[in-house]
Input
Amino acid sequence: MAASPAGPAPRRLEQLSWPRLQAAAQRPGSTVVWPFGAFEQHGPHLPLGTDGLFADRLLDAVLAELPAELPIWRLPLQSLGFSPEHGAFAGTLSLPAEAVLHLVETVGRQLASAGFERLVLFNGHGGQIALLQVAARQLRAAVPQLGVLPFFLWSGPAGVLELLPEPERSQGLHAGLAETSLMLQLAPELVGEARPVDGLVNPAPPAGWSLEGAVPNAWLTTDLSASGVVGDARGANPELGEALQRRLVEGWRQLLLELLHSAWPPRQGWKPQP
Output
């Protein structure tokens, strides 16, 4: 007979035995967070796994700040993502959209079958925001009992972008001030000395349009940059990186805490109030 699980279980599902995972999944509000990155160029000064490193390490920091008794665990990092916009640069490895959709649905179905109630897609790569939103909606439709929440690392917590000056706040899309500063804080040994700024938007989109945001364009990195950088990292520094890290971790800690203390998403569908 299998021994009963005893003591606090690790947050990482791959470190659990199957009885412990089974017990975890049966807890009310059981939530799994799946960090997503990408394997793509980040200019000549940042590593190919930048987005995944951010999602992985910041998620660990957030989970460490949550009370141990809360029913939340994580999956290993999904380090390959959807990055066709960077395909012209050596080292970029991109999965087709269909593979990502299939991956999310396959894993999500199995988590739901085990009994987990929520799956959070904790995404660090801006180029797959829309794709993971589609994946989440398809999975929820296929498995209504599983709540699916597609989060983007940089857009949840309040006050993060306010740490960046303009025009970097709106135009520093890739390997610019924010990402370089955060990497200087988290893994400075991986940051090179180069700071190219050829990724400035020139010519600019038509008035009222944007590269991302309200009126987006399906841009390729080569439309904007010869180095792979879209932004200006010349002012990057670890102090800014520490401030970004602090706001991101505290913001996601609060958001996940609110989720875990809620009954959202609804499990039985909408019902009229009496």
